[in-house]
C-alpha cells in the first residue's frame, strides 16, 4: 500500500466514523473482509492456531488478534472516543422562538470551535421490538440539523479579550424555529425524530424507545489542506488516526505473525468502564488465548504493548507552550512520548526497541516531553501497563488543535508509523 492510498482510506474512515459505535462497526467490517473470524464474548471459544479473530464489547471497543504459536506479541492500543457534545436524555428545550437540544460536554473538549458549525447527530439507540426483545441500532442523521450561533460582537465588545463559555447555557444547539414540536400541533417530537432515523436505517419494528447515546458532530468532511496537501484536517483525528494505523497494521500481517490490536472506548474520560482500558476487556481476552497461567505470564513478559495516541506538535503561533528541546514537528515522524511521572509508560528499554525498528527502516522519530511547569495528559499506555504488567511504549502522531472540533495532522506521519509497526514483525 502506498501513502496516497493509505491517506485516501484514512479520510474515508474518519468521515464514516462520527461516534465510537460507528468506528467500531467500520473496523469490524474491515476485519471481517480481511478474513478475521468474529468471536462472541458470551460464547465458548474454539480457537485454532494460525487463524485470525476479532471481538467487540459494548459496540464501542474492539480487539483483533492472530492466534500464533509464538508468545512474543506486538500489541497496539488506541481509543475510539473523541471529545464531543452528547445529547441529554430529555433534550428538548423550547424557548425564545426556537427549539434547542440540551447537551453535555464529553471529555476535555475545546468549546469555542463548536460555534457556527453545521452539526449533525449520530450514535446508538436502544429500543423494544414488537416481540418484546431489547435491541440496539446505530443511527447517523448525516444532514446538518443544528447550529450553535455565536453572540454578535456588538452585544459583547470584550469577547476578543475575555471569552468564557457556560457549558449549561451557551452551547445548546438550535434545531428548528418551530416551537410546536409535538404530534398534537402537527409537528413531531423527539421520539418521532429518533424513530424516523431508525426507519432510515431499515428498522421499522419499534414498540418503545428506551434510551440513546447520541452525539453531535461537524458535518464537514475530512480533507487535505496545504499548498502541497501537507496536512489532513478532520474531526476525531484524536484518536481515529491511530485506530486506522493499528487496524491496517494487523490486517497487513499473516495469521502466523503474533499481533494484537485493541481500540478502547472512554479514554477521554479516564478509561474507567467495562469497555475502557481500565476495564477487563484486554485481560479477559488474553486469558482466553492462554488459559494456562504459566503461558499467560510468558505472553505478558515477552510481548510489547504500543500505546498509539496523538502528540502535541509545536504550535508555530504559541512556541512558548512547548519545551524547545522536545517539540515535535508535523511531517517529521512518529513521536516517542516520555514523562518522568509515568503519565506515559515509555521507558529506556521500550523506547530503544521502537527506535531500533524505526532506524532499520529509515523512518524518522521525535521525542515529546511536556514543559516541566505544565501538566501532562495521559493515554491508555500507563493504564494497560499497570493492569497487565506488560512492557509498554507510548508513541503518538504530531497534531495541532487537539480536542478541537477539527484537528490537524500531517499527511506523512501516520503512514510512517504504519511501516514501523509492521517492522516489529519482520
From TrEMBL:
Alphabetical keyword list: Aminopeptidase, Hydrolase, Metal-binding, Metalloprotease, Protease, Zinc
E.C. numbers: 3.4.11.-
Cofactor field: Zn(2+)
Gene Ontology CC terms: cytoplasm
Coiled-coil spans in chain: none
Enzyme superclass (EC): hydrolase
Record InterPro entries: Peptidase_M18, Peptidase_M18_dom2
Family listed: Belongs to the peptidase M18 family.
UniProt name for this protein: M18 family aminopeptidase
Amino acid at each position: 500500500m502506498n501513502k496516497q492510498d493509505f491517506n485516501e482510506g484514512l479520510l474515508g474512515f474518519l468521515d464514516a466514523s462520527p461516534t465510537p459505535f460507528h468506528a467500531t462497526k467500520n473496523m469490524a467490517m474491515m476485519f471481517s473482509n480481511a478474513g478475521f473470524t468474529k468471536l462472541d464474548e458470551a460464547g465458548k471459544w474454539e480457537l485454532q492456531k494460525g487463524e485470525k479473530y476479532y471481538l467487540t464489547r459494548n459496540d464501542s471497543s474492539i480487539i483483533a488478534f492472530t492466534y500464533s504459536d509464538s508468545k512474543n506479541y506486538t500489541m497496539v492500543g488506541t481509543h475510539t472516543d473523541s471529545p464531543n457534545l452528547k445529547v441529554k436524555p430529555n433534550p428538548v428545550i423550547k424557548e425564545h422562538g426556537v427549539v434547542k437540544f440540551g447537551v453535555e460536554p464529553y471529555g476535555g473538549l475545546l468549546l469555542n470551535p463548536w460555534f457556527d458549525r453545521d452539526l449533525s447527530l449520530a450514535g446508538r439507540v436502544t429500543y423494544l421490538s414488537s416481540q418484546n426483545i431489547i435491541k440496539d441500532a446505530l443511527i447517523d442523521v448525516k444532514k446538518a440539523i443544528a447550529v450553535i450561533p455565536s453572540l454578535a460582537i456588538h452585544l459583547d465588545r470584550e469577547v476578543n479579550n475575555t471569552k468564557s463559555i457556560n457549558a449549561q447555557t451557551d452551547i445548546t444547539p438550535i434545531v428548528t424555529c418551530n416551537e410546536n414540536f409535538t404530534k398534537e400541533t402537527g409537528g413531531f417530537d423527539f421520539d418521532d425524530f429518533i424513530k424516523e432515523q431508525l426507519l432510515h436505517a431499515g428498522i421499522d419494528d419499534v414498540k418503545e424507545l428506551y434510551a440513546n447515546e447520541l452525539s453531535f458532530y461537524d458535518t464537514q468532511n475530512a480533507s487535505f489542506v496545504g499548498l502541497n496537501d501537507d496536512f489532513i484536517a478532520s474531526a476525531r483525528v484524536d484518536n481515529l488516526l491511530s485506530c486506522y494505523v493499528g487496524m491496517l497494521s494487523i490486517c497487513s500481517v499473516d495469521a502466523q505473525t503474533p499481533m494484537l490490536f485493541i481500540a478502547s472506548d472512554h479514554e477521554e474520560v479516564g478509561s474507567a468502564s467495562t469497555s475502557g482500558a481500565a476495564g477487563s476487556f484486554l485481560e479477559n481476552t488474553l486469558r482466553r488465548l492462554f488459559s494456562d497461567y504459566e503461558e499467560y505470564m510468558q505472553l505478558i513478559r515477552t510481548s510489547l504493548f504500543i500505546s498509539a495516541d496523538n502528540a502535541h506538535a509545536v504550535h508555530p503561533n504559541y512556541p512558548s507552550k512547548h519545551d524547545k528541546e522536545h517539540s515535535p514537528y508535523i511531517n517529521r515522524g512518529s513521536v516517542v512520548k516520555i514523562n518522568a511521572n509515568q503519565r506515559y509508560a515509555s521507558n529506556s528499554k521500550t523506547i530503544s526497541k521502537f527506535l531500533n525498528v524505526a532506524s532499520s527502516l529509515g523512518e524518522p522519530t521525535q521525542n515529546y516531553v511536556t514543559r516541566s511547569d505544565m501538566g501532562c495528559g495521559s493515554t491508555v499506555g500507563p493504564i494497560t501497563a499497570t493492569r497487565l504488567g506488560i512492557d509498554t511504549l507510548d508513541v503518538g502522531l504530531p497534531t495541532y488543535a487537539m480536542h478541537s472540533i477539527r484537528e490537524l495532522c500531517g499527511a506523512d506521519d501516520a503512514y510512517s508509523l504504519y511501516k514501523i509497526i509492521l517492522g516489529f514483525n519482520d
